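Narrative of activities, Objective 1.

The group set out to show that a structural description can be obtained from nothing but a protein's sequence at a throughput compatible with the screening campaign. Below is one input-output pair from the validation batch, recorded exactly as produced.
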Amino acid sequence: MAAGYACALREGLWLGCAPKTCCYAPVVIPTGADIWRIARALDAPPSSFLMYFETPVPRRDGFALDRSARRFRLALGKNPELQQDGRTACAFLLRTRTGEHRCGLGDLRPMGCRVFPSALHDGEVGIQSDHGCVCRQWSLADIDTRAERPLLEARLAESEAYCEVVARWNAQVTDLPDGERRRPDQYCEYLLEAYDRMEELVPGDVVGA
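Output recorded for this entry:
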């Protein structure tokens, strides 16, 4: 069982929340491993559940499409049928007939969602300062810090691995002839192939904590 699912208290509180306002966040940024897990499990191209946007500041997970300084990031897509206070829900959020909200991904939720609202602050387990939840006041009493740490560390490791994958892509794009450009779907194809190779080298290593 994944380490995060030993965190029964936090998980239970989140599952029992009907509005799921956190799922209406402006962007949900998955790791490369998250994208790979979802795409391979659902047998769906990343373009079917992702959107991309230009990042205004340089980031290690920002990928290039040409030799310019512009960089882009991937985020989960949106469900235009679910609106709340001017915000649009995640593409995977489902609303039941009784008005409750459920995540359609279940155990495939991105690492950022699986650890919500926990975070590492200078190596210590705490609560995200900008978690965006308005359904409850989260506190350390809501989480088991010992059980949270392995999942938080796994998320950090996945983020670092993704930055390395992005760096290799950007190095290839730097060698493109002037004026030549790559498409976002080509980047996603590269991403899946990179994680397929990682899984072949170390089976189970990309599948999650």
